[in-house]
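Box 3.1 A note on notation
Throughout this textbook, protein chains are presented in two layers. The first layer is the amino acid sequence; the second is a token string describing backbone geometry. Keep the layers aligned when reading.
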Amino acid sequence: MKGQTSLSAHREARLSIKNADRLQGIFIGFLAVSFILMKILPVPQIEWIVSLVIIAVIAWVLPGVRGSTLVISVFLLTTAIALMLYHRVPAQEWMDSLRINITLVAIIIFVPLLGIPVRTGGYVDALKVVLFQRMNEPNFFYIGTKLLTHTLGVVLNMGSVSIVHQLTAASNIKAPRLVANAINRGFVSSIFWSPYFSAMALILSQIPIRWSSIVFYSFGLSIISILVSIWLDQVHIKANMPDKTEASSSGTAEADLVWAKKKVAELFIFLFVITAAVLFLEFITSSSIVLMICIVSLFFPLVWCLVSGKGSAYLYELKQHLFVGIPRMKKEIVLFLIAGFFSGAFVHTDLSSALIEFIQNTFGAFHLGAAYFLSLIVVVTAVIGIHPIVVITIFVTSIKPELIGFSPEYFAILLLGSWGISNTVSPATAVNNLLANLLNVNIIDLSIRWNAKYAIIMLCILPVYLNLTGI
């Protein structure tokens, strides 16, 4: 009887946790939907409701956060509140500051929906069939893994990491460092220019530029990043040349290969159509590209799945995202919201002016030095465990680029590049923690030790590249 009671209590506890996750998923999901509502119906009442929901989400989620994320979140929150109180900031400014990073929350929640057609359409299996024969060739394995992660990451973001990791399991090459570097840096190179990342969403929401004005320069930075990565890992690629006796022959039937190639072509058509739809909507409307991404992410996968006869699969995946996926991201979402609130407090104090004055007095017309200074701060703070979102949010909301000699486009790409570079060496980012778990390696090795040279080289290249482009 006692055992049955204990089992019953355990089931009730699990049910309670599940219900709590459901409610948190709904609450946080509402924030993403509210972003669209605020853009369509910009009325104060909706804005205040959203701010109050943000307060409720922070108060609900923060007590359950652990580790460095908790320390950083509490420090930023208490400091922001103290600054707001000391400077007697009006209540309206408090509410506005709470919503500074609502754009990021919308992107983080809506964009994963674009992965539903990929997961339900058999595309991962098709990729395995197409790539099987060459997955044991180290150069193809490394470059192919990097480029595939980059391509899928442009639209699928973090979803690309798990998908590509599944594909690498089919290879005889099991070196964790080679796999991690290929996936990690391929993912990072898409951060530089993809409109579907929270980094780009933050930049475009705070700097008066259009995505089309920086995309070619950002894409050029991605190409440089990929080339630097391949050059750095040549030693590890050669060290993993498999024994010829390990080569495996493909037993794939010709019909299966034809089917797989068609599915892969269909996948790339899907990725192209999604990106084209967003660009088309931005071109024919005056709305921001971030809003267009949210709308496309919300409706396009539904239409795709319905046309493909996958309506029930879409409904299942949607529920999984709402009740499982979003609660898994709640720590990062709360950190992003608090970072936005802190940046609002930072702007309403003299700290923002002091930072700009320091840069002006220290570097003057030496704009290259100012660029290195800002990038170095982002990377160094990332190494010690502070998520890049914290520093980038402060910079983008408190510094007017023209006051330190930068064009808006130069400043935007500088921050995007710094974010991407710091992402490789930060033990606090989601992609590094995910890869560490998937590959069962130490997070410090994966982030700092394996990527230090890459980060240093890219940090040196970034400002010089921007100066050479004349942007």
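DSSP finds 23 helices and no strands in the chain. Residues 1-17 have pLDDT under 50 and may be disordered.
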